[in-house]
Amino acid sequence: MMHPGQASDLAAVPVLLDRVAIPGPRGRPRTYPDALAGDKGYSYAPVRHWCRRHRVTAVLPRRAEQRPVRGRRFDRHRYRQRHVIECTVGHLKEFRRIAQRADKLAVRYEAWVVLGMIRLTL
To answer: Which residues span the domain enclosing 96?
Structure first.
């Protein structure tokens, strides 16, 4: 899913998460993940509200101005598993065309991201 670079990511999070399809061993794919991990930039009310509404564990560290909620503990182990995604994005940005977003059309940019993922997996 692509959205303008000047737009906030927070507006795109609920729309993106509603499009998730997690394939299982059989049957139709699940539409919600077990947990959602992100950095402090995603620790805002709309994201946490979406997680509560869909019974998804929010693994989001609290910002400095947020009060801790009693009874909720931060799952440090799950949070550290984010490094897989961060490293993958870092490897994708080694391709200059993807890092600089040289293409004007979103379709072409997405195609280059797919090609970059194929190259990383080979």
So the answer is: 82-122
